[in-house]
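User: Fold both of these, please.

Assistant: Here is the first one.
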Amino acid sequence: MDKFRVKKLRIKLKMKQTLFAFIIGVHPMTVSKWECGKLVPNGSQLIILKILEGNLKEGLKLLWKIQADLIKEKSNECIKS
């Protein structure tokens, strides 16, 4: 996925780089570097981007669920510590 497609997708979703990065599970600087052409998404990142590109509604639902599960897992780890 080239830098123009990443930015076009983010704009289509009406998201700032920070939220877009959170949804994908990367640092906002990573999104910025993708959009400048300094980095390219790796395998798992590319899959997520393609899901978002192909079926935005279902892709977003899936990603929000994954992020919520990760947050819940992290908070459980903190409670146990």
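And the second sequence with its predicted structure:
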Amino acid sequence: MYLLKERTMCLTLFILLTWHLYLENISKDKKLAIDYTSKWNNVAIVCDGIRVVGLGDVGPEAAIPVMEGKSVLFKVLGGCKCLSLVY
């Protein structure tokens, strides 16, 4: 029971603080979203496997290594967080 109360208090505190941050700062100045979130350095590479560079139509499973390689290049050369999405 004590653990449940502690968890509920933590969740409530987290929600209140993020809500306050949004109301007081980000809602008034949209440029602050870059300062308070990781919006500024996230990239997503999306591929369905139809046009994979150098391989052609290989399907989504075979495109995964290529997309992961691209995400490593973005991370190393661009300094950004990258997520490869293959569907």
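Strands lie at 42-47, 81-86.
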